[in-house]
Automatic annotation (TrEMBL):
It comes from Clostridium oryzae. Belongs to the TsaE family. This is tRNA threonylcarbamoyladenosine biosynthesis protein TsaE. GO terms for cellular component: cytoplasm. The gene is tsaE. The keyword Flavoprotein does not apply. Gene3D superfamilies: P-loop containing nucleotide triphosphate hydrolases.
């Protein structure tokens, strides 16, 4: 597991951008962390790394936002308000994540059983003992397709 300790919003965006510059078609990135840890900001950075300059907002009420203006399409999910996994399946979840787009799923832990094994998982934790802005970002994956993450240094 790769870990980063960050202490400001710009580092979160930079890490996301570095991931976005390296992602490949079909990558699935699962984000887990409490409210306010930076999941959407990390997604904004990923979008920037993909060359997407649209305003990135969390699709809390629509479940998914699609962005087509970058080198790869981005499907940005937020399943925080999903009542059950069937609701996610009904929007065509499988078609989204098993496509050539990059899929980023905020609150992925809410739909664990729907997440394929060949996903990257990013866990964001506040480190309040170090200060209000400190975060630990831990990245884990089983599929070698994500080995590009090892190239990233902040």
């Amino acid at each position: 597991m790769l870990q980063f300790i960050i202490d400001n919003l710009n580092q979160t965006l930079l890490l996301g951008k570095m991931i976005g510059e390296r992602v490949q078609a079909g990558d699935i990135i699962c984000l887990t962390g409490d409210l306010g840890t930076g999941k959407t900001h990390l997604t904004k950075g990923i979008a920037e790394g993909l060359g997407i300059h649209d305003q990135i907002t969390s699709p809390t009420f629509t479940i998914v936002n699609e962005y087509n203006s970058g080198r790869l399409k981005l499907n940005h999910f937020d399943v925080y308000r999903v009542n059950d996994e069937e609701e996610v399946l009904n929007i065509g979840f499988d078609e989204y994540i098993f496509s050539d787009a990059v899929s980023v799923i905020e609150w992925a832990n809410y739909i664990d059983s729907l997440i394929p094994e060949e996903s990257m998982h990013i866990y964001i934790t506040k480190l309040m003992e170090k200060g209000e802005n400190f975060r630990k970002i831990a990245i884990d994956y089983a599929d070698k397709r994500y080995d590009y993450i090892k190239e990233i240094e902040l």
